[in-house]
């Protein structure tokens, strides 16, 4: 919810409020993002009220080999071969920006949460504390007429406070205030957008993973990342113009005159652009060495003296920190100049904007609609808003995730699913162990260290061992904005309070219903929330070939994150420590470069001239390539135990090897709006679904063998890459 760690997700995550992708909630954890913002079942009658129509039972998608388009050649474009029939039958609903085989599951999970929330919202006297909180949160969020009637009132105290500031010295306490109310990342999850002015949290120390220290991160933006302010192509300039019009409209909705709003919008964009220019870019940030800048409090004070750091730390109740990690000192030098050069009135406009913008989804319809119009329609391509119930489910999951998560786990995650997943995880870890042992390019010394790290990975499946205690969070039925502020303050302070304490290894950064997974290099854990352990990813009704192709690849992907270009820099304990011999490191980098060169490619779906940056996606692409290979190896072992081989015919007339690849592709079939393709290419470390299939298999002789492909065909790459 707050700041970056280097966790890496499985999939891009289109975050709830605005359909903007997040992938790594905290820093360096790696996810597989399968997450979609996805809403709304297809085929809703347009005449029915959205909320009602959408309530119909969602459909879980099960792997179905009849969906293969046999008129196409699998060796030419395997993604199309596997997905085109499904894609044609499943257009993107108007309120979605992305629609995939996992979208039915998203809706399924949301319906489950909705039932829980609705039941809890009955205002009875015999509810326990948890049900009171989630139930009243739901009631307040769904009370659209009450929210409309209140207008801007819930935010007025904040706006008045900002208007009353007397000098630039007062800015600091208002920053702390904004960080409590709107830590930032809950809107975007992306590092660059964390918090007004900057981001602050408790974070494991890079050099000593047993400690938690204070981390101060770049931030301050409202658009998805710095490129949106800096790029000068026509499309970017047009978007920035639309952004100006949007900021102006929002100021008018907040009571300013047209002329004042226009001037203030110009100021906001000037300040945000200044911060964007000072920010470290997202490729540079991928290397943990570049953000591991330790400073003393005295150095922090000196770095940006316009911010009263002592007052800030006191206001956010930060415990003493051994030192501070300042991810990007250059950013703070730039921000310091900005603060010096602009008068208080400019900063008041900026802070007023930050408050209105970050609170927008919680306010009245006119503001919600205008916010949608720019952030979802112009930026992401959505045509209409998700029904309110879905927005409220997403918000409740974000704000009271552990309370809701318990309900989800009880109803949708039987112990058998957990047991089978754990068994797959162990077999895939064993596959990496044999892979490491067999490598010709790695020395015995590095192999030994790699095995230590692999053995040190902690597998977290389904849900956390301990749930958060929300007893200090006050939730009432009468103010949605206040409820969100209470919950976000709680979460912000919870992370800040970790500073100076021993690291909490039980922490998860995804809630149980999340359809995603992540690796956390500083905890050396792989994490699979219950949400993703459902069809089409995990299907208890299907054979091993189908499951290893889908969730098996996801498991392999997360394990490989511990050994991708970023993860390999952390050791078994999560310390940033080089355990590679120099020669092995060089060998690794050559193989990594093959991947990043391969994935630096045109993205026709995102518009002409748009190119993917293989340096941004290298970690995810490495995880995709290695992950699928590990899953296939583990499947082979499992079949052998059953007296079968990969090339035996399984159900439906396909060999197990073919079923594995078909199931893998099927789990990634997705229709994606061009605006989202563009957004992903700019901000997201994950490749688009088509590349996650076609690039990967074109690197694999195992795929050639499965479908009898020949050299020269599209799915057979002359210079195939392989790291793991
Ligand atoms: Zn990943």
Explain what the structure shows.
The chain starts with 5 loop residues before the first strand and ends in a 17-residue tail after the last helix. It is an alpha+beta fold. It is globular, with a radius of gyration of 25 Å. Strands 1, 4, 10, 11 and 12 form a 5-stranded mixed beta sheet that branches. The longest helix is centred in the C-terminal third of the chain and has 28 residues, at about 615-640. It is built from 29 helices and 13 strands. A hairpin with a 7-residue loop joins strand 6 (about 200-205) and strand 7. It is about 50% helix and about 10% strand. The site of zinc ion (ZN) has 10 residues, from strand 1, strand 4, helix 23 and helix 25.
Overall shape: it is: globular
**Total beta strand runs:** 13
Beta-strand content estimate:
5-15%
Weakly predicted, low-confidence segments: 14-27, 34-55, 185-192
Question: C-alpha Rg, in Å?
Answer: 25 Å
User: Helix/strand-derived class?
Assistant: alpha+beta
Report the span from N to C terminus: 32 Å
Estimate the helix proportion, in percent: 40-55%
Separate helix tally: 29
Cofactors, ions, other ligands: zinc ion
Sheet having the most strands = 5 strands, mixed
Mean pLDDT: 91
What key phrases describe this protein's structure?
724 residues, alpha+beta, binds zinc ion
Chain-wise SSE layout:
Blueprint: E1 6-11, E2 13-15, E3 20-22, E4 28-33, H1 50-54, H2 78-89, E5 98-100, H3 103-121, H4 129-142, H5 144-150, H6 153-163, H7 171-181, H8 185-188, E6 198-204, E7 212-218, H9 227-230, H10 234-253, H11 258-278, H12 288-291, E8 294-295, H13 297-303, H14 309-315, E9 324-326, H15 329-341, H16 344-359, H17 365-380, H18 388-399, H19 401-412, H20 415-438, H21 444-456, E10 458-462, H22 480-496, E11 518-520, E12 525-529, H23 544-561, H24 582-599, H25 614-641, H26 656-666, E13 670-672, H27 674-683, H28 689-698, H29 701-707
Parallel strand pairs: 1-4, 7-9, 10-12
Antiparallel strand pairs: 1-11, 2-3, 4-11, 5-13, 6-7, 8-9, 11-12
Helix pairs in contact: 3-4, 3-18, 3-19, 4-18, 6-16, 7-14, 7-16, 10-11, 10-17, 11-15, 11-16, 18-19, 20-21, 20-23, 20-25, 23-25, 23-26, 24-25
The structure holds zinc ion (ZN).
């Amino acid at each position: 919810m707050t700041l970056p760690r280097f966790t890496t997700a499985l999939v891009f995550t289109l975050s709830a409020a605005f359909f903007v992708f997040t992938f790594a909630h905290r820093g360096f954890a790696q996810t597989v993002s399968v997450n979609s913002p996805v809403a709304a079942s297809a085929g809703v009658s347009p005449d029915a009220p959205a909320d009602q129509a959408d309530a119909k039972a969602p459909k879980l998608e099960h792997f179905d080999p009849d969906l293969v388009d046999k008129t196409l050649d699998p060796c030419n474009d395997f993604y199309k071969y596997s997905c085109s029939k499904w894609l044609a039958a499943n257009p993107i609903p108007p309120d979605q920006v992305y629609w995939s085989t996992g979208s039915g599951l998203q809706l399924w999970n949301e319906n489950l949460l909705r039932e829980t929330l609705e039941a809890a919202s009955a205002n009875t006297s015999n509810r326990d504390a948890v049900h009171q909180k989630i139930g009243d949160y739901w009631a307040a969020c769904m009370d659209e007429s009450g929210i409309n009637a209140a207008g801007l009132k819930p935010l007025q105290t904040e706006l008045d406070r900002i208007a009353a500031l007397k000098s630039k010295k007062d800015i600091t306490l208002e920053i702390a205030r904004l960080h409590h109310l709107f830590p930032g990342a809950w809107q975007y999850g992306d590092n660059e957008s964390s918090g007004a002015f900057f981001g602050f949290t408790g974070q494991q120390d890079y050099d000593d993973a047993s400690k938690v220290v204070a981390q101060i991160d770049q931030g301050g933006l409202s658009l998805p990342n710095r490129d949106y302010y800096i790029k000068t192509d026509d499309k970017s300039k047009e978007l920035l113009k639309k952004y100006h019009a949007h900021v102006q409209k929002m100021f008018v909705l907040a009571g300013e005159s047209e002329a004042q709003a226009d001037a203030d919008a110009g100021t906001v964009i000037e300040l945000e652009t200044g911060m964007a220019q000072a920010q470290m870019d997202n490729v540079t940030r991928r290397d943990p060495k570049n953000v591991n800048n330790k400073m003393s409090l005295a150095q922090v004070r000196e770095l940006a003296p316009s911010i009263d750091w002592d007052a800030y730390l006191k206001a956010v109740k930060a415990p003493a920190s051994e030192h501070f990690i300042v991810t990007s000192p250059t950013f703070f030098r730039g921000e310091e100049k900005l603060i010096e050069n602009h008068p208080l009135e400019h900063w008041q406009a900026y802070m007023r904007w930050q408050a209105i913008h970050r609170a927008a989804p919680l306010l009245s319809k006119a503001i919600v609609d205008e916010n949608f119009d720019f952030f979802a329609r112009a930026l992401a391509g959505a045509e209409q808003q998700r029904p309110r119930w879905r927005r409220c489910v997403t918000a409740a999951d974000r704000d009271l995730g552990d309370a809701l998560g318990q309900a989800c786990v009880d109803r949708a995650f039987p112990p058998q699913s957990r047991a089978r997943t754990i068994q797959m995880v162990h077999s895939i870890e064993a596959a990496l162990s044999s892979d490491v042992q067999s490598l010709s390019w790695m020395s015995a010394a590095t192999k030994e260290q790699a095995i230590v790290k692999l053995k040190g990975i902690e597998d977290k499946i389904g849900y956390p061992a301990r749930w958060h205690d929300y007893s200090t969070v006050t939730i009432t039925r009468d103010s949605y904005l206040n409820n969100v502020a209470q919950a976000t303050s709680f979460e912000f302070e919870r992370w800040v309070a970790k500073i100076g304490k021993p690291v909490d290894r039980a922490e998860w950064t995804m809630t149980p219903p999340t359809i995603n997974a992540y690796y956390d290099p500083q905890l050396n854990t792989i994490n699979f929330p219950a949400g993703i352990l459902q069809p089409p990813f995990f299907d208890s009704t299907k054979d091993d070939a189908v499951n290893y192709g889908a969730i098996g690849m996801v498991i392999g992907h997360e394990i490989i994150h511990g050994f991708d270009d970023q993860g390999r820099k952390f050791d078994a304990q999560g310390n940033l420590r080089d355990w590679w011999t120099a020669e092995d490191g060089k060998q690794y980098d050559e193989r990594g470069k093959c991947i990043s060169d391969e994935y630096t490619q045109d993205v026709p779906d995102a518009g002409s001239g748009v190119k993917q940056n293989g340096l941004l996606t290298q970690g995810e692409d490495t995880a995709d390539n290695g992950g699928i290979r590990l899953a296939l190896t583990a499947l082979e072992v499992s079949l052998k135990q059953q007296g079968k081989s990969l090339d035996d015919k399984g159900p439906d007339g396909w060999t197990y090897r073919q079923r594995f690849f078909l199931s893998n592709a099927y789990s990634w079939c997705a229709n994606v709006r061009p605006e989202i393709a563009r957004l992903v290419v700019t901000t997201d470390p994950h490749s688009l679904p088509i590349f996650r299939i076609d690039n990967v298999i074109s690197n694999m002789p195992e795929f050639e063998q499965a479908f009898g492909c020949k050299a020269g065909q599209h799915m057979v790459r002359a210079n195939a890459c392989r790291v793991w």
